[in-house]
Amino acid sequence: MVKINLLPWRETQRKEKQQRFLILLTCSLIIVLSIFVLIHIYIANQQSFQIQRNTMLKYEISIQDKNISVMNVLEAKTNQIISKINYINILQKTRLDTLGLLNQLAVDIPSTVFLTKLTRIDHEIIIEGKTQSSGALSEFMQQIENEVLFQVPIIEKMKTPDDASIENIKINDNVQLFTLHFQQRNKH
After folding, report:
1. For residue 127, how many other CB atoms are within 10 A of its CB?
2. Radius of gyration (Cα) for the chain, nearest Å?
3. Which of 79, 81, 104, 156 allows an S-S link to 179, with CB 3.0 to 4.6 Å?
4. Can you give the CATH number for the domain in which 123 is found?
5. How many domains does the chain have?
């Protein structure tokens, strides 16, 4: 029988297999690396796109914040204007009441009673003044009480002043300071 030596053929085949393996290994490494590179490029593009979107959103948010601050300023000015309009309307409504009050007080006040200060808070009227006799002040209070516009007056303070605190009054004058308050009735 003829003996055939298969060693060189096997070695050649082994080298071919090894070459194919190296070629396949190299091809698979190239494919894997290219996949990684493509994934990396895709992720980098997505990140840059998201950064652009975030930048655009920050810009739009800053514009909207400016708009909101302008609107807040406008709203504050609007509220101020509305409150001024309401105050003017209240003054317009009470204008005639105030004129009536002053006219009636001018008619009712005796000649020996002097008003130094008149304050009106809503419907409460506070009068500060001087009188030379308590009888004149009593008469004034009775006339106020008899008026339809006013409610019962109440004396809050009545005192004799210090000589240094009163101007234009002689020492021998019998002057008394008073504070009187009463309510004004609504006509409505």
Report:
1. 22
2. 51
3. 156
4. 3.30.1360.100
5. 1
